[in-house]
Write a sequence for this structure.
């Protein structure tokens, strides 16, 4: 979990300063800067979509540890490239490498599946989500503070965190997949489109579709919520930041505290349904809120969505043998990258 926390913290630290750095590199032209920033986001998500199935499959063949460690080292390199970038081209190269390296979440979740009993996997995936949420809550705040000193300082700090993550894993992370449980893969297994064939496997398609649609729905929050509350309620950036932080805390509490007892009491399928209903209710409150007070009520209600994703991950992990957990988690990480690519375009188009 510490590896996931440091990983997400490093990625989130650079988010507040990336637009300003791009603006400076394109000569202060705001329209061009906006287009370039959008291209950066698309490139990052596309690389995650492509690399996740490959890293997941490689972790099934060579073990989780080497894939996780090499990805952490790759992130240290890509943040260093961005810290030194003299042009937009170099900055984009670092961002592309960052997207590929961030796909190590597939190997990390496969590691969790390896070391966790089946009946506790949903709770473990929930705690993994908590680590990610904490990183994304703390990262932008820390990045803003460091960016006030220098726009490039957050990138150096992220590189240091990634290197520390690599060294920590080198010392403290044992291998979770025994050699006898590993599977051979050919070139076909490294084809990103092989994930689509795996997607069609009986027992995978239905829950994977639920996962993809749920992840896509959540893209509405970073894509249009800021625009919506600014226009409808006149919220200032401080209030928007507080709402996003509250949502992150809500998801962390649900994932870290509520998922485990809920799965033990209701089982994974019922927990999944409850989470989807709660999350949908939160979005309905957002859309129908006549004032800020009702919108704020929707924030903790939306947090119920944090029940759904760990539950559906647990369902799929039960259905897939231990030799293919990396392949499964690679598929899920790839779907996450695809929704991050499609979601902003979809929701901003609908909003406009």
């Amino acid at each position: 979990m510490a590896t996931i926390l440091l990983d997400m913290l490093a990625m989130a630290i650079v988010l507040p300063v990336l637009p300003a750095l791009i603006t400076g590199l394109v000569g202060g032209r705001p329209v061009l800067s906006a287009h370039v920033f959008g291209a950066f986001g698309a490139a990052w998500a596309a690389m995650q979509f492509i690399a996740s199935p490959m890293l997941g499959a490689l972790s099934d063949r060579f073990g989780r540890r080497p894939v996780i460690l090499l990805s952490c080292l790759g992130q240290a390199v890509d943040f260093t490239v961005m810290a030194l970038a003299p042009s937009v081209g170099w900055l984009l190269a670092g961002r592309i490498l960052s997207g590929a390296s961030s796909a190590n979440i597939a190997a990390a979740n496969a590691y969790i599946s390896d070391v966790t009993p089946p009946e506790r996997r949903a709770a473990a995936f929930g705690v993994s989500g908590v680590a990610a949420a904490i990183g994304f809550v703390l990262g932008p705040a820390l990045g803003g503070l460091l960016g006030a000193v220098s726009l490039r300082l957050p990138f150096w700090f992220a590189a240091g965190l990634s290197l520390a993550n690599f060294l920590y894993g080198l010392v403290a992370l044992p291998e979770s997949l025994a050699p006898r449980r590993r599977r051979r893969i050919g070139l076909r297994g490294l084809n990103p489109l092989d994930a689509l064939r795996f997607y069609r496997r009986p027992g995978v398609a239905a829950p994977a579709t639920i996962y993809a649609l749920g992840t896509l729905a959540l893209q509405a929050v970073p894509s249009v919520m800021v625009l919506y509350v600014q226009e409808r309620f006149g919220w200032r950036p401080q209030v928007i930041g507080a709402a996003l932080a509250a949502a992150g805390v809500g998801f962390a509490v649900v994932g870290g505290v509520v998922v485990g007892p809920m799965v033990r009491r209701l089982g994974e399928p019922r927990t999944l349904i409850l989470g989807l209903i709660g999350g949908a209710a939160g979005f309905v409150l957002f859309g129908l809120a006549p004032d800020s007070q009702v919108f704020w009520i929707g924030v903790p209600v939306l947090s119920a969505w944090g029940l759904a994703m760990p539950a559906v991950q647990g369902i799929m992990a039960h259905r897939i043998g231990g030799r293919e957990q990396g392949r499964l988690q690679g598929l899920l990480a790839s779907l996450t990258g695809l929704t991050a690519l499609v979601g902003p375009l979809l929701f901003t188009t609908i909003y406009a």
In short: The longest helix spans residues 30-62. The chain has one domain: 2-174+194-351. The radius of gyration is 20 Å.
